[in-house]
Amino acid sequence: MLPASAPSPADKDGLHPRNRHRGRYDFAQLTATSPALAPFVTTVHGEASVDFANPAAVKALNQALLRQFYGIDNWDLPAGYLTPPIPGRADYLHHLADLLAADNAGVVPRGKGIRVLDVGVGANCIYPIIGHHEYGWRFVGTEVDPLAVRVARQIVAANRPLSGVVDIRLQPHATDIFSGVVKPSEHFDLTLCNPPFHASAAEAEAASQRKARNLGTGRAPVPVLNFGGQAHELWTPGGEATFLWRMAEESAHLRPNCYWFTTLVSKKDTLPGLYKSLKKLGAIEVRTVPMTQGHKVSRFVAWTYLSAEERQQWRQKRWAAPAAPTAPAF
């Protein structure tokens, strides 16, 4: 079997119109910008590609994409940590921008006045990198793994575009979501999260083996996901449903602190329980936004506890709206 090829234009159908990664990767340009990628580039069916079953190749590709498109020259991860697929991460952020724009006369609020909380930022720090570059937003990233916190902070410190706009915080309690890291006086326009989807190490390993077979090269199945991942990044007791139940419960304690809470939801079966929890907790509006990348269909759920009047006051105070009247103190 030949190495897995880069996604074709058809494979990337469905990506957000503002996503910089629609269509094929330009490997000639990527290797010119990042020569370290060159040893991993092969020819498959007459076109340049990398072996997506090779974690080192995936990391080198990410380093090249981050340098070329987002101005990040210094990005590296410890062995075994999650190396996320950048096109999909960018898509979530662009759809979040649209979520804000829908309440702002179709205009995406930009700049440092918009604050975003990334729950589980990981060592890779991908969402803050992309979100700040594309929209100028400020980020707080939380993480339960001390090593991941240290690596993410190193990435922020080593790249001038991230200076002063990304704050990485250690979540001291592994089962908490917002408690312990969000200050009572803080306000966020968005929260985002890519939760651990699996319920056990065995379930995560089975998914790893399936992906390895799908991306295989005729060798024995690769023993880890090509994108890597530590245990806390891949699985949690009770799986996605339990994690998101805890997130919903904790979000209710931050009702006035956030405009939109959001999270990716991998499994359709998780949605009814999450909807039920949010209704019980008094969420005023809940939206489910589908996202597509080729044959892969995903989604995120967004909810708010703010009334229409409270949201209008929030926008007038925090978003740069032309000719907006001065709102009462929040």
UniProtKB/TrEMBL annotation:
It is found in: Cytoplasm. It comes from the Bacteria. Keywords: Cytoplasm, Methyltransferase, rRNA processing, S-adenosyl-L-methionine, Transferase. GO terms for cellular component: cytoplasm. The keyword rRNA processing applies. It is an enzyme of class 2 (transferase). Coiled coil: none annotated. It catalyses: adenosine(1618) in 23S rRNA + S-adenosyl-L-methionine = N(6)-methyladenosine(1618) in 23S rRNA + S-adenosyl-L-homocysteine + H(+). InterPro entries: METTL16/RlmF, rRNA_lsu_MeTfrase_F, SAM-dependent_MTases_sf. SUPFAM superfamilies: S-adenosyl-L-methionine-dependent methyltransferases. Signal peptide: none annotated. Belongs to the methyltransferase superfamily. METTL16/RlmF family. Specifically methylates the adenine in position 1618 of 23S rRNA. HAMAP family: 23SrRNA_methyltr_F. This is Ribosomal RNA large subunit methyltransferase F.
